[in-house]
Structure formats: structure tokens, C-alpha cells
Amino acid sequence: AELRPTSTERDRQTRRHLLSVATGLFASEGYQNATAAKIANRANVSEPAIYRHFASKEALAIAVVNGAWELFQETLVSNLGSKDNIDARINALLDTEKSVYSQPEGKVFYMLGSGATENSDLWQSLREFLARKLELYKQIAGDEYIAFRLSILIGIGCLAIVQGQQVFDTT
Question: What is the model's pTM?
Fold first, then answer.
């Protein structure tokens, strides 16, 4: 007899599927244009199904931002490895940014930022994402001023990637 997934497992699968679909829609259409109805339609679920998993569209967007942060951290840890010289560490950081922002999970960050209302929970989540990245930059660079300069340059480069331009050739 074939084992059927438990309701808890189905809920986790549905949640992951909704996050994946929402990530793609937020990345391609932005926060305002990616309505709950569009997300539900693309995910092949009812709109109320979204609200069984997320309290609001904003809560779904915040979960997407958290997923982008997890992807960024995992990719950075993998790219850093045991590199100990500053040039190799900065190149690993640049490679991470290029890799993450070439994917929907990275692109969505910029698209959500353009649709977030100032002081909303989504706005706060995006600000926390940036603050955590700046802290990582400080750890990698070992200097607050260099980290700040890196964050500006990387921000510009990531925006170019989102817009489809080639940047960050660290080879």
C-alpha cells in the first residue's frame, strides 16, 4: 500500500509551493501587481488556501524575504569556505551576490522594495535584511568603512543584475 502524505506534510508542501510561486511573481511583477488571486491561480490553489498558510499577502512577502536571506547565507558560507585573505573573502562575497541576485529569490528583494509601504512590516523586514548583510560585510572586510563602501558598490551591481546586465566578473 502506498503511503499518503500526512496533512502536516501536505501543508508544508503547499507552503513551499506558495513561497516558490510568490517569489517568481514578486520577482517578475513586483509586490503591487502580484495579487493574491494571481498567486493562487499560478499555484493552482484557492485564494483562501493562501490565507490558511499566511496571514496576509504582506506576511507571504516577508516569508519570501526570509527565504532570500537563507539562500544568501547558505551561498555565502559555501563560497567563503576557509578563505582567510581579504581579497579571496571579498571575491567570495561578490560571487555570492552575483549568484543570489541572478535567481528569483534575489531579484525579489528589489521588486518587493519598490512596493513596500514605508514603516510597514514588509519595509521593516527588508531593512533588517540589509542590516544583517551589512554586518556580514563588516565581518568579511574587517573594517566598517570598507564594508559600507562595499555595500554601496554591491547594491549598484545587484540592481544591474536584476535589470539583466552583466557585472561582477571576479575571475
Answer: 0.82
